[in-house]
Design goal:
By secondary structure, this protein is an alpha/beta fold. The protein has 10 helices and 8 strands. This is phosphoglycolate phosphatase.
Length: 212
Amino acid sequence: MKYKLLIFDLDGTLVDTREDLAAAVNEMRRFYELPSLPLSQVISYVGDGAVKLVERSIDGHDIEITKAVELMLAAYKRKICIFSRVYDDCRGLLKFMKTQGVKMSVLTNKPQAMTDIILKELELDHYFTPILGPEGAGCHKPDPGGIYKCLELNHVSAEDALMVGDHHTDLRVAQNAGVDNAFFTAGMGNDGGLKPTIIFDDYLSLKSLLST
């Protein structure tokens, strides 16, 4: 096994959260008497944290951002795991990597509290050390600080780690930290024209690629 540490993004990588995120954004918009946005439009705003998601969702309207973020997060917390699901064969990959002694972490731009709830609700939390949102990381991706913290806490060097994600932010943070990256094409984001170390369409493929 080439890698000793896998660092996973959350939304669009481990868990398909698109419907619950879109529902929360549209509940916030209804508070301001704005029409709902289509799912695809909301998802195109995901990847850079809650504040950016809300800013993009109300762009062009004279709305105070802090209040809007509070409303969106409150709506999301109330219904955080209604439709969210673990991607097919992801659990199998996690179980396999654990048996191989590969360490695993989560690094996401999602708020820490929401991240912890989702991973616990979907019974994934026990696979990962550490689990870092921006509060725990002390920064947002693509700042490499979160990756450095994962490396340090797991006593792994950069050349032995792989960042797994579905967004160009994940690819960029890996490049900034000097670690390899794997891009999940079936997630919610895009590669932003960057060139990943590994490209995979499903978790069976990733398992095979990492086992060779």
